[in-house]
Write a structure and sequence with these properties.
Layout (H helix, E strand, L loop, with lengths): L1 E6 L2 E7 L10 E5 L23 H6 L9 E4 L4 E4 L2 H6 L9 E4 L2 E4 L2 H6 L5 H28 L5 H14 L5
Helix pairs in contact: 4-5
Length: 173
């Protein structure tokens, strides 16, 4: 016969053989079939057939605590990591001033956002704008400048491209 020993609503042992006939105060023996709950399990964690309840129910009833940074995924049947948004919402992770939430992820703020939030100076912002303009000039305007020098393009067309780059990447005062 297979049975478990219970003391104070805790499974203290799982045995095969004859159940003890002596009764001890606070100790109970119950017959089981295929018990897989282990020792130290509270009876509240077991169903009416003395089988371990599903994890989702154990979590819902508070028998199993959700580890920090995790959540229970009932579709998968196990704990999964919280995404960045959930970590911020639950207070596990704090956003740095230069960060923001985008969807479920923490991302760096754009240079415009950093400037608007006064996290960088106007000189730092303009230095970035200079780099953007330089790259655009190299890719868009410089080839046209060579065409102007060879007489293949009007200078005004080249200057329009330069102006459009400056308009696209405006500096701040």
């Amino acid at each position: 016969m297979e049975y478990i020993k219970i003391e104070n609503d805790i499974v203290k042992g799982h045995y095969m053989g004859n159940m003890p006939t002596e009764q001890t105060e606070g100790v109970e023996y119950r017959p089981v079939k295929g018990y897989a709950g282990g020792r130290g399990v509270n009876l509240g964690m077991l169903d009416e057939h003395l089988r371990l309840k599903p994890m989702e129910i154990l979590v819902k009833e508070g028998w199993v605590k959700i580890p920090k940074g995790k959540k229970y995924d009932s579709d998968k049947g196990y704990f999964v990591d919280l995404n960045d948004r959930e970590k911020v919402e639950t207070g596990i992770r704090e956003l740095k001033p230069e960060e923001k939430i985008d969807g479920d992820y923490i991302v760096q703020k754009s240079i415009d956002e950093l400037y608007k939030d006064k996290l960088i100076s106007s000189d730092q912002y303009n230095e970035y704008i200079d780099q953007q303009r330089e790259a655009a000039y190299r890719f868009e305007a410089d080839p046209l400048g060579m065409q102007v020098m060879r007489g293949e393009l009007e200078k005004e067309d080249w200057l329009k491209v330069i102006k459009s780059i400056k308009d696209r990447y405006p500096k701040v005062k």
